[in-house]
Write a structure and sequence with these properties.
3 copies of one chain form a homotrimer. By secondary structure, chain A is an alpha/beta fold. Chain A folds into 2 domains: about 160 residues, Rossmann fold (3-Layer(aba) Sandwich), CATH 3.40.50.1370; about 150 residues, Rossmann fold (3-Layer(aba) Sandwich). In chain A, about 40% of the residues lie in helices and about 15% in strands. The first copy, chain A, is built from 12 helices and 11 strands. In chain A, helix 2 crosses helix 12, helix 6 crosses helix 7 and helix 7 packs parallel to helix 8. Chain A is globular. The mean pLDDT of chain A is about 95. The interface between A and B is large, with 38 and 34 residues.
């Protein structure tokens, strides 16, 4: 494996090998595997789970990592090409990224969407531009439209709990939130469920349709895996017999990048907070999933989150093992 | 040892084992002892010594650590139960703590007192609530009322300098300071000196009495160890023949949580700055102690701090060995 | 090697050994060399390359590091002697530095010039005062007037590209910049080129002369190495047949510490931006050098920086190997 930018890049066989490796490293740690190896971590957007789990993953494999982030005392970085840099930015990513990459055996990059153009963001143009500057293998730690580490962890979590692949019903539900959030997790999640062969349903209010390019890509994955993908605003129909409700808020795609219209549209959508009533018609063992961080009693209420249906902590813990596998695969060439 | 929350939790025999281990690791480093092990560090309050010494301690034992802190680019955390999270906090400690803990083999937590209710703070309610969320063993890196890492280091320091246990006179003296400071160090220190069997005197102006619960607990420890504990405002009597003067400022307990009345009470207490005159009637080899950070010429003057009586740097250095022992004990099960 | 404060401290033979060691560690990593060893890093000024490359260097040698910095959540530090600390500073460097140093096997310090007095800065008084407080070996990570890690990396880079030592023509050129920058890199660079035996020319506009003490020290080094050092404002003459143009902006020495007069003097100096025309009369294989971070199209234009003459990324990468050698030399006693 030369890099880890998108779950969709992985052939099914390779994905299984990666999941096997994650399970193996969970049971049989290899504290010398990455001795003397270094992971460079570039955070252009904030993080808790990703930052801490990647550091831990390297340590558990005997290596280490360092963090570069404008929030950690480094100077502001310029990203625009051709600009006369007489403003606040002290360094261009054209220097910063290859330099940081040259100090590591792989480079993790987190860079959220600029949220100016949905077309650009769906193509993940900014992330690809940053990644192309790295001389080291790149790991996507969440970009405009992708979050493969989360997806790999979610897949592993569902395997552990014996969620059915073909025949499993997976509902990705939009949820209420005070802010307009990125499309990365919903886009990655619908892709992941489709690749896993599940009946994948995107449940969302009008104005929050996922971009057609995202849906089309997921449908192509479903065609290979034997799953299906569709979108609806009908909650009752969507969640009936579901095996998983994966809640996540995202910004309006109708008013993409327009904070005011987005907020207006979200007025009246406070009911999109997952509570126990959602599980009345699901499969009896239906689980609640979320990538975290989650706002309690806004996205989901305490009762669901603290109850036996919630597997959010298991998902978060599997970030560690998923990422250990990715690092092992890239730095040891094991997958 | 399953956790390290409070020095008072330790049986005398176990405490001696921990001190032995600290001395052994100082002389005979074990750079492979914690290979592949990870310490998660959650700082909800600022730190210099604790942050750097815990990182160093893990590295010297062959492991590593990561830091999560709202000052290090992670989002604000909610701590209140049952709240509708539509404000600035992006994540609840109910998720954040178990997640962070799940990436480590132990979790260090630093969380100063909320300073709203002295009754709650004395019970260390907030720390215990946070600690109860961890699935990993917890290390107290300073809470509302406890600082066992500092106490263990101080104990080791006094042993090295052959401070008498029974028969030693230990004066914890209040000192001047521009701010109302936490009770953690004074409460921990009086407990530590009492457990060590010393004649323990809390010297403080009126209005700065330590809480009765703290004094009572220390007296119980003294009853076991053969020491004693008392409080006084009479400096001359307190410091006569003392073997150690441990200076520390703390907030008024009479006006606890009231910054204005606290400041008012501190007017006129500028004389509570330790200088050479304090040592005229002490034991000739009396030492000056402080946990650091210390404000020069406010808490203690340059002459004492730079002179031969000061052992503050030795105390700080022993933080490293004390914490190496705690980590070894917890992660290797050696104590 | 007991410390690494200044390239000029090194005898020629020792410098060659250090370069040999850097080359050896680049080719033959030693991931167990510094097992259990810890580097303490104190950043009183911002950093990207230095912070990340030192962390990586320790990890590649099997050790680790920790960072203390007022930008990373530690409290403000006092540096003035004898002061009554009743202001914002919570701790004095007289405690902070020995404590941090005592947790490491070496202490890296970065502290830019106070820029109040050019005489004090040229003597590096502040850095030396800080360094004198450390009980551990000190590594200069850039001070008022020195940057030996950069110089060692630059030297190695020139060796790799077979830049002639004696007979090589090295031009350190002032460049345009929106801000008044420190003298550390220009002073270190002229010293490095002189020590390397090159014909060293400082090209700069009037008002930006390097301090006489810096020039005099470089001339003494040139006398030993067989090189030469001079200063000029005549670009045409300076760059003719040059093997290297090393661009760097620095503050006016005529108006040192006076931001307004400095800015005024820089009006009209926008032409000091290196572009392709500069290389018309140089040696055909003349290279462009810079220590980074660099402001594109202010200090140097895109065409030069992205073209084949630029070796700035190689310089930055060599920071890693240079510093691995320094750490190995100090902590293993190998040089």
């Amino acid at each position: 494996m030369k890099s880890f930018r998108d779950l969709a890049d992985l052939e099914p066989q390779r994905l299984e090998e990666l999941l096997d490796l994650a399970r193996r490293l969970e049971k049989h740690p290899e504290p010398k595997a990455l001795e003397g190896k270094v992971l460079a971590l570039l955070f252009l957007s904030p993080s808790l789970r990703t930052m801490t789990s990647f550091q831990s993953a390297m340590l558990r494999l005997g290596g280490g990592s360092f963090i570069a982030s404008p929030e950690f005392g480094i100077h502001p970085l310029e990203t625009r090409p051709g600009v006369v840099m007489d403003g606040t930015a002290v360094e261009h990513v054209r220097e910063a990224i290859p330099v940081i990459a040259s100090y590591g055996d792989a480079l993790g990059i987190r860079a959220f969407a600029p949220r100016k153009s949905i077309e650009d963001d769906v193509l993940d143009k900014d992330f690809d531009a940053l990644a192309s500057l790295s001389t080291a293998p790149v790991i996507n730690m969440e970009s405009a439209i992708r979050h493969p580490c989360q997806s790999l962890a979610d897949w592993k979590t569902m395997d552990e709990l014996s969620f059915p692949r073909n025949g499993g019903k997976f509902v990705l539900s939009w949820a209420n939130h005070p802010k307009a959030l990125p499309l990365a997790v919903p886009a990655a999640t619908v892709q992941m469920a489709a690749m896993r062969g599940m009946e994948t349903i995107v449940l969302r209010p009008e104005g929050f349709e996922l971009p057609e390019a995202v849906m089309e890509r997921a449908r192509r994955a479903a065609a290979v895996s034997g799953g299906s993908v569709r979108e609806t605003a009908d909650r009752a129909e969507a969640i009936e017999d579901a095996h998983a409700i994966y809640a996540k808020s995202w910004s309006s795609t109708r008013h993409y990048g327009d904070a005011d219209l987005d907020r207006e549209l979200r007025q009246g959508l406070r009911g999109w907070c997952v509570d126990d009533s959602w599980f009345e018609t699901t499969s009896p063992d239906c689980r609640f999933m979320h990538c975290l961080p989650v706002r309690r009693n806004v996205v989901v209420n305490d009762s669901v989150l603290d109850g036996p249906r919630s597997i959010v902590l298991k998902q978060a813990r599997n970030r560690l093992y998923a990422q250990m596998a990715v690092l092992h695969a890239i730095m040891k060439g094991s997958v």
